[in-house]
Write a structure and sequence with these properties.
This is THAP-type domain-containing protein. InterPro entries: THAP_Znf, THAP_Znf_sf. The protein has 100 residues and is mostly beta strands. The protein has one domain. The chain is built from 1 helix and 4 strands. The strands form 2 sheets. It has a two-stranded antiparallel ribbon. It has a two-stranded antiparallel sheet with strand order 2-3. Strand 2 (45-49) and strand 3 form a beta hairpin. The two termini are 20 Å apart. It binds zinc ion. Zinc ion (ZN) binds next to loops.
Length: 100
């Protein structure tokens, strides 16, 4: 499955790095990835496949935590686009205009 790699954007000065374990993406170095803020708890729900293969409505915040294996979420936390499949952008609020 293709991951979300984008055309190089303008070099930014933000000191943003990805919060996912073992990921070394940095906004200043990896110009072809985009960084996403963690959704707020209770903000939105997404459909996520559960253990039984059924789609289940779950809080987007919880879904991200679960999928990205993150225990502690801070407001500064950013997740890089390498953890999203292109098809996942249907589920994201990336500026493609597609919304959950
Ligand atoms: Zn990352």
């Amino acid at each position: 499955m293709e991951v979300g790699i984008f055309t190089e954007r303008v070099k930014s000065k933000w000191r943003v790095c990805c919060a996912v374990k073992n990921c070394n993406s940095k906004a200043s170095k990896n110009l072809n990835v985009v960084f996403h803020k963690f959704p707020k708890a209770g903000e939105r729900t997404v459909l996520l496949e559960n253990y039984f293969g059924n789609l289940e409505k779950i809080d987007k915040f919880k879904a991200w935590k679960k999928l990205l294996n993150i225990n502690e979420v801070t407001p500064q936390m950013k997740i890089c686009s390498l953890h999203f499949k292109k098809t996942d952008y249907i589920l994201s609020d990336y500026n493609s205009g597609k919304k959950i």
